[in-house]
Write a structure and sequence with these properties.
- This protein is mainly beta.
- It has one domain: Translation factors (Elongation Factor Tu (Ef-tu), domain 3), CATH 2.40.30.10.
- The protein has two helices and six strands, in the order H-E-E-E-E-H-E-E.
- Strands 2-5-6-1-4-3 form a six-stranded antiparallel sheet, with no helix packed on it.
- Strand 5 and strand 6 form a beta hairpin.
- The longest helix is centred in the C-terminal third of the chain and has 7 residues.
- The protein is globular.
- The N and C termini lie far apart (36 Å).
Amino acid sequence: MELHRPYTDIFKRNADFRVNYRYYSYEEGGRWNPVYQGIRSDFWYKNEGNLKNSIYMIWPEFEDASRNVILDKSEPIALSGTARMWIISPDLIPYHKQHLTLGMSGYFQEGGKRTAECTVTELINLR
């Protein structure tokens, strides 16, 4: 079993926010292969809050039903659940503090492809 190193250990801080997510099925235009802990998909706002020509390096860290970080990188992630979200570019934290709100919708992006939809359920470091 390959273990995921929690981002709290790597980044030395708490996650920025939490989302409920749902990955699209292949038939909906989603991925054809499973998702594993450690995927570095990006976040995209559903509204018009996106900076022009920007990709936000905001990575998900998936949780189990008890909101513990999933550590087993060899098991596929559920197609829906919760994830802690980590803003990777510190320079953009003020921007996201202004634009992220409870209940807002967004997407997980892999390149130019939307692979999942999500809803912000908790602001953690962005309060």
